[in-house]
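Exam prep: given the inputs below (a chain plus adenosine-5'-triphosphate), describe the expected output before reading on.
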Amino acid sequence: NHNYAMNNQSYSALWGGGSLFKVKGSILGNHYKVEAFLGEGGFGIVAKCRDTMTNRAVAIKVNKSDPDILQQAKLEIFILEQLRRLDPDAANIVKWNGFFHDGEWVCLKFELLDQCLWDYIGDRKNQGLPISEVRPILGHLTNALSHLGSVGIVRADLKPGNIMVVNRYESPVKVRLIDFGLACPASAVMPGDRVGTVGYSAPEVMLGLPYNEASDMWSLGLVAVELGTGVPLYPGNEDYDVLKFIIETQGQPPDHVLDSGVYIMMFRRGPENGQRLFVSLIKQILASDANQRITLLEVLRHPFFNPKSSPCIGMSAERPQNPCKAWFLSVFRAAGEKKVKNLFQSNLELLLFLFSPFNIRPFNPSGSQIQTGNQLDYSHCRHKCLCSTFAIFQYCFYAVFFFAPIYIIGLSAIGGINSIYILQRKTAWLGK
Ligand SMILES: Nc1ncnc2c1ncn2[C@@H]1O[C@H](COP(=O)(O)OP(=O)(O)OP(=O)(O)O)[C@@H](O)[C@H]1O
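Solution:
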């Protein structure tokens, strides 16, 4: 939304859905002559028009011809119909004078107001308004919200861009609420509906909880601060950043709020910059139950170290000297290598254990084996009984795999020689 950045008079043409559709001087509907461009929002553009029948200036909001936006226009008309029950002057809401169609566009007719609060604050170089001015404006806004509450409407997108000053030269200034595109009956609020503008939405709206008039109260507080200081209290382009600010200044929302938010995971996860994976890794490393604790190989397989699944590696490429991450990488890589080395070593030992009968003296009742090279050293082994079991196993192994084949080969050889001898004798006898 860049309403506040627009210069009213500098546009001679109106744009709708990205294409030029009306120029200054052309007629909108049957008798509304376009005089100026007033602003543009997510749903459409607002033009200052002259009613050629009454010669009065009006504001006409032309909704973009997108099917979703047309649906939104219908909802706004529905709410405006509800608000007809209120007196706009007494309720500090914009006067609505119905709608008409111009080709594919839906055009809503409003009284012409002066400028939005963003522009009003901006004209004072964002230094903030004196309290004497803040007081009546805040009074009008509270009054407006209270009237909306009386007809069961939640405003849902209160921000300085949606509050208009009636006449900036009047003192004290009067303000009115405009833009009911996101307003809805309190009874029809859908938790998880993402409404409002980043920086002005209440935490419950951001988190996806059910919301009500209390959410408007939150936005009112933010508008009040902006009036007094000239700058938004919670700047940010993402809800995540805003919620972080809120938690810093207001503390964390209570658990029951956090636990029931539809979007809570989005906030718990946070933006994917590697920090989340780092924290998840550390949590697994610091599991107080040793059985639950992550193993070194699992550490190496953790997405924290995986450049494809973890953008934090990309981050580390931008900042290769991140000392903390470098330290973790080196420690875990070294530890992982050691584990692989240990694994290899123990396999090597097993091979030696099985195939080096002359070097290994597995069973020593004194338990004081002194070995050299790669051979097993039981000298410090506290599990002598286990070692004895190994020794028995070793003897069995020799019996089966070493002596038995020799025995079998020997027997076969003797048998073979014997057969040859018998054959020779038979041949010799036959020959005779
Ligand atoms: N009655 C009015 N008189 C004068 N200017 C108006 C009037 N209504 C709207 N404007 C101007 O047009 C801008 C856009 O209006 P509006 O907020 O209704 O549009 P929107 O598309 O619904 O915007 P948003 O994206 O904030 O929902 C306003 O910020 C304001 O500058």
